[in-house]
Amino acid sequence: xxxxxxxxxxxxxxxxxxxxxxxxxxxxxxxxxxxxxxxxxxxxxxxxxxxxxxxxxxxxxxxxxxxxxxxxxxxxxxxxxxxxxxxxxxxxxxxxxxxxxxxxxxxxxxxxxxxxxxxxxxxxxxxxxxxxxxxxxxxxxxxxxxxxxxxxxxxxxxxxxxxxxxxxxxxxxxxxxxxxxxxxxxxxxxxxxxxxxxxxxxxxxxxxxxxxxxxxxxxxxxxxxxxxxxxxxxxxxxxxxxxxxxxxxxxxxxxxxxxxxxxxxxxxxxxxxxxxxxxxxxxxxxxxxxxxxxxxxxxxxxxxxxxxxxxxxxxxxxxxxxxxxxxxxxxxx
Length: 333
Prior knowledge:
This protein is mainly beta. It is 6% helix and 46% strand.
């Protein structure tokens, strides 16, 4: 038996460099459920918005919701629909395709694209493309905006790029199967890799820190005003809550109905259930999520965003059924 163990040890030791260089093991990325037609009318107001929106963020200075929709095919121009405080909207067509959106909460949003990123001014609607030197052929798939103003981008090839103040690459960390989403807490970025169903913290310098498994099939990630990182484990049917400094899983709570859309507020954490066309608000104050409110939604409630100032929850249909606006969403608590 000892000889067998030594043989295994020597084999693993001798192959360690090859194992390190090998592509990370992955699983088939989880997806939201295909929502059935709603059987209950959505609560609140529903604003028209077609296409297949992929993400939404709320910008406090302009009191605007920015909804990102990819083009009809991978090369088609993407759009950002800006919904103002009076529920009026306008759509900005980008110069080309885009893959993800992040906001600075100062009136601008940033969208990852091949070779760089696009900046959209939410007040004027102006869209400006920035090419990253030496990365013209890089397919960027994710983007995050740090508190210090620096951007972090991720690629389809599995690298995370931390940009310097001049928008050049300051650090590149190629440890992922694919970078699917990036959120930030202060100057720390947290990367979601759906294939590895993992979350990884990047230091302010861009170097990888802690990396943790995130359930059985993590799909979406959000940072909330309380300093937490929230993850929907769609395949495992869980809401996962992480602390960032250091990265540590603090809570895991079962959520039925194929959880997918996720966002946080100062009061509640919101999770959509795509199998049942519902959104649930959880209170995390006691150390374990406690359901406080539940609302019927538009079909395919894939994207959520929240306005803390007005207490308004936005639910965006990924099937073109519009933007649901639920005012005073947390109710009387």
